[in-house]
Amino acid sequence: MSDGVEGNDERRRTGDAAVPEPQGVPEPRPGEAEPAAEPEPATLVKTGAADRTEARAGAKADEPGTGEADDAAPDASGTPAEAPQDSPDAPDDPDDGSDGIRYERLPDPPPPILDGVRARPPAPPGLATLVAAAVTALLSGLLLGDGLAVNALILALPLAAAAWFAARQAGRRPRRSSLCWGAGGLALLAVPVWSDAEWPTLLAVLAAAGLGALALHGCRKWSGVLLAPLGLVLAVRRAVVWGWRGVRERTAGGEKDLGPLLRSVLVAVVLLVVFGGLFAAADQAFADLLGSLVPDVDGGSGVPWRLFLALLGLAAALAVAHTAAAPTRWDGLGPGPGRARGRVEWALPLVLLDLLFAAFVAVQAAVLLRGEDVVHAGNGLTYSEYAREGFWQLLFATVLTLAVISVAVRVAPRSGPRDRLLVRAVLGTLCLLTLVVVASAVRRMDLYMGEYGLTRLRLSVVAMELLLGVVVLLILAAGVFGARLLPRAVLASAAVAVLAFGLASPDKLIAKSNLAAHRDGRTLDLGYLSGLSADAVPALDRLDEPLRSCALRSIAVPDAPWYATSLSQARAHEILTARPVRDHPCRDILTDDIYPSVR
């Protein structure tokens, strides 16, 4: 019998009360080392005898079958059999009321994916950061309910101030690259100030948000460039809690108590409202001036909508400030270089792809040199079939080529100078041939637009194809000078393209191009032109009546406040006020093509 069993028999003979031993941690025998400390309860789970039987089933080939107990069964005299030596969790006394529960260690959970890239939580925000966030919330509720124009640029200023104050409090100084990205984001917000068209404005605002996220995170790799905007969204919840902690600390009294400032602001608002209302009632000129400067919170947008915009602006300001104080290093999530392949395994598919591209380029040389003659000489070939369908295929081929290049770079052989020369030769040839494919696609769409005129879709896809061509050129440059700056160079080129696209006023270009083609003898789709934005009003204003009135009647130029009025809207409002549209029957004019003789 073991020492533990003999101790149990001695306690029964003397009549002493049995003291139950801690389950799973037996007393050390003489001469043995003390057992290790019990693991933390968070990593343990209780299992009964039946659970242990199920857990051990199939673990060993010689495990006892069903019906055999895991623990030692008592003999006929009531004395339990000796516990197995390799089971330290077996109870010393089964008569002490134990139900056979033991503890088993669970495997440690994997660490969260962002633990390695997320910075430590910053200290609660200071007074300057909280004031900048409050100003952003106030301006969002007052200015964003009527559209986007100058108000987008106005809101960017307190957002930038909140990020600056939070970064300085955390001891972080902005890099030159971050300042450049921030300046680029502010420049993109000039598009809604200039243009009235919704689609260039949306592109510009999204691009500005992307550049702002990159300025806050300071990323340099592809993973950081792509995930930085997502970081702002993921930071909202933590930023709101962070901001609340700062408010609680500032309202708890002390040297930087926020209470006096809040009371001062409240008193100032009450005084301005009372005396401003009295002066407005006393003088109509002052009332008109005050009405043009102060937003109308009782307008059609409604108070609940403005409150929602204010909360949205507050959350955005806190997220920006929190990211500036403790940015997530998304660069750490980027995939490492792939497993290098052998020269033949890597180069053979790409060389064959180069040959295929070369054959296509040889055929397309005729299109680039004699585009119109090729179309007219084809059997039943029209511009629509030749240009529109071929363009989309070539656009997809360009995108797929960029994907092939990105994968090929990761698995390229890199054992020595010969491998580097092979990679540059094969991928450089592919990039050069891709540039010819881009030129062919743009030429096809140029022929199509020359025959049928410009539209928003046609102009947008041509701009996208040109941007892809710029990306291919940047990849070629990276092969010569190194790829360290490639992600940021691609993003910068995309931002410049969006800025140029917005400032060029695409709707104005479309109207001018179609009117010029109409003067040269081609038909005019006035119904399509009447659906453009206020950017097209100066060009359409040159049409003769009744075409002018029919085209301008459907273009909405709202009488928005100054902060929600773009320069194009102001110019269009000026034109329509000086020469109002006339009442003409326009149904047939807007639904039929207008031939030059009708002008």
Please give a structural write-up:
Helices cover 61% and strands 1% of the residues. By secondary structure, the protein is mainly α. The chain has a two-stranded antiparallel ribbon. The longest helix has 36 residues, at 417-452.
Short précis:
With 599 residues, the protein is mainly alpha-helical.
Which features does this protein show?
mainly alpha; disordered N terminus
Shape: flat
End-to-end separation: 117 Å
**Main sheet: which strands, in order across?**
1-2
Secondary structure tally, helices: 24
* Relative strand content: under 5%
The residue-averaged pLDDT reads 76
Low-pLDDT residue intervals, each spanning 5 or more residues: 1-47, 49-98
Coarse structural class: mainly alpha
Q: Roughly what percent helix?
A: 55-70%
The SSE string, one letter per element, is HEHEHHHHHHHHHHHHHHHHHHHHHH
Care to count the β-strands? 2
Largest sheet: 2 strands, antiparallel
Q: What gyration radius follows from the Cα positions, in whole Å? A: 37 Å
